[in-house]
Specification:
The protein is of the alpha/beta class. The chain is built from ten helices and 20 strands. The chain has one domain: TIM Barrel (Alpha-Beta Barrel). It is globular, with a radius of gyration of 21 Å. It binds iron/sulfur cluster.
Length: about 400
């Protein structure tokens, strides 16, 4: 069934009341990933600079968590102090990492400093040592190694994200299947659809209407001739492979009324099987309840074990009702399963910015990954336009491309 915004809960996040603050502590990385938005220009930020940004986020963002990003945050020499400072400020610190530098001793130190969890980026287009030319299914072995290491320390939230390229789109179910085998240990999966501008077909101007060199941006390719994957296409693929999966919430586009920029869902299951998903009503209860009780909206649950109490939402939420029925049928067939833990595992799909014919970009409405730059909040996916050109660029097709396209139509 096609996605319909009326069947989904529009996440209540906004510029000034958003569960996520995106803090970039370095632009240095230890591997090169094809889809990365950042290039090395300024190096590691000092602890004082980081503290200033955390204070800015506290004042203007009301975050539930700080996503500590980069570059690669684990190679920042003061990563433990940064985590401790954020935790002491009463915000959950989450590290976004490629996990190359993740070792058990560091993991224990970070946990002691107050780390809430990790979002680990693994996909087959990274230039990862010892893991070249692998499929997404091959990389599940690496995801498992990281999961086992994090589970060994315990008490940490763990999400895996991957960039989805047209060439790897069909491999998404392999990642989802692996995630479902790790219910209770893997708390979420996120699929981010790849986007790029191409310098051979596009021309860019800055805020003063001056033509600029697009190739200075790491996320611009000289040439790209595949069709980008959209969030609804990812959703359809997941639905086909896992019919009990449902999306429950969304963020639309900043320009287009019909974009699905963020799709958010959560599966309900035990370590043995998945029973179903939460629906829009449960998503609304989770967001509003968290805001009433804690004062912030919610992006990361503190723990995946939610228990059978989730089924109490059955009278209001048809998706939860279906999951409860499936659970009950399983218990009737296997009474010992009554005492199995019940967990949720979130599933997110993000469709990165799309260029519009007039040169603007359709961004994520209420961008959750907005970051700090020079006293302003700037979408992190386009931060390098500010760092290199002083503001967002306008990118349109070269006139000769338009003419050729016109002739072909
Ligand atoms: S607009 Fe915000 S949420 Fe969307 S891809 Fe860019 S940084 Fe991420």
């Amino acid at each position: 069934m096609a996605l319909d915004k009326r069947d989904l809960y529009r996440l209540p996040w906004s510029m000034n009341d958003n569960p996520i603050a995106w803090l970039e502590i370095t632009d240095v990385c230890n591997i090169y990933c094809e889809g990365c938005y950042r290039q090395r220009m300024t190096g590691h930020k000092t602890l004082d600079e980081v503290k200033e940004e955390v204070a800015f986020f506290k004042q203007w963002r009301n975050p539930d968590n700080v996503s500590i990003a980069g570059g690669e945050p684990l190679i920042h020499p003061q990563i433990v102090d940064i985590v401790a400072h954020i935790a002491a400020s009463g915000i959950k610190p989450i590290i976004l990492t490629n996990a190359v530098a993740l070792k058990p001793e560091l993991l224990r130190e970070l946990k002691k400093a107050g780390l809430a969890g990790f979002t680990v980026h693994i996909d087959s287009h990274q230039n990862r040592p010892h893991w070249k030319d692998k499929t997404e299914a091959d990389l599940n072995e690496l995801r498992q190694q990281v999961t086992d290491m994090v589970a060994e320390v315990g008490g940490l939230y763990l999400v895996f994200n991957s960039t989805v390229y047209p060439s790897t789109f069909h491999e998404i179910p392999d990642v989802m299947r692996w995630g479902r085998q790790n219910f209770g240990r893997v708390h979420g999966l996120v699929f981010i659809t790849y986007r790029t501008a191409t310098s051979d077909t596009s021309v860019a101007t800055d805020s003063t209407d001056q033509k600029v060199d697009l190739t200075k941006l790491s996320y611009v390719k000289e040439h790209f001739d595949e069709k980008f994957v959209t969030s609804p296409e990812v959703y359809d693929l997941l639905k086909e492979a896992f019919p009990e999966f449902e999306a429950a919430g969304y963020l639309g586009g900043s320009i287009r009324h019909d974009s699905f920029k963020w799709l958010a869902g959560a599966q309900i299951g035990s370590r043995r099987q998945v029973f179903g998903s939460v629906g829009k009503q449960a998503m609304e209860v989770a967001q509003a309840g968290h805001h009433i009780l804690k004062g912030t909206y919610l992006a990361y649950l503190s723990q995946a074990q939610i228990g059978r109490k989730v089924f109490l939402l059955s009278p209001w939420d048809p998706a939860v009702r279906q999951a409860a029925k499936n659970w009950w049928h399983d218990v009737v067939r296997h009474p010992s399963h009554l005492f199995d833990g019940i967990y949720v595992q979130s599933v997110g799909v993000i469709q990165a910015p799309d260029l519009m014919p007039d040169g603007r970009a359709d961004m994520c409405d209420s961008c959750p990954d907005i970051t700090y730059f020079d006293g302003k909040l700037v979408n992190s996916c386009r931060l390098d336009e500010y760092r290199i050109f002083g503001g967002f660029l306008s990118v349109v097709e070269k006139p000769e491309v338009e003419t050729i396209a016109g002739r072909l139509n």
